User: What shape does this take?
Amino acid sequence: MMSQNFDSLFKHNIERHHYQKNKAASLSPLQIMIWPTFSGLSDFEKQFADRLAEQGYAVTAIDLYGHGQNPQDFPDKRAKMGALLADAESLHALQQELTQQARQGDSAVVHIGFCLGGRLALEAGLHFTETLGAASFHGVMSFYRAQSPEQANQKVKLMIMNGYQDPLVSDEDAQSAKQYWSSLGIDFQFFDFGNTVHSFMLPSANNPDQSSLYNPLVAQRGFSYLMNFLAELH
Assistant: This one.
């Protein structure tokens, strides 16, 4: 039943329009995949892809839900996200399929994401062997662990950018994730930004009562840190 419901929501009769920027692909051997927030592919992810392409990267912003399928209000967004994350096997199969749709050749892949997409970037980094690096912006730490150390992509490099006041990432969750990555010998960087809550990269985030607020200074820092991280992966 789970598989049938998942497939009907995310696979059957879904037309996807991934946003690809490949004009500068020859400047870097990396292919970057951008995973969106729980709102689905939007102008924000497309504009972020444009910024990365200007730096010489081949980038694809993933159309997670499909053309015309983005949920519109908060309850629907939460429900669709819940269905997406309910089963590890289904989730990873879909992520692998979407990554292969967007991938060109056999270049190393780097996954980047925001909010829900931050978790999806971490999922791809941990579970897909072709992933060289993964970067999460304000993503939660409740990602699926590998079934065994041998099944984890232990060569991946991770960068996590987190608002220290983000209520969706408790100190316990952050510490558990760090201990897990350490146990696998994974190279990770974890940045806590002070006076910063959830969605700090999103210019549209303006709901401080719900601890969701754009922080332009931290957003610029985050982009600079990402550039350094990508440069390490070349």
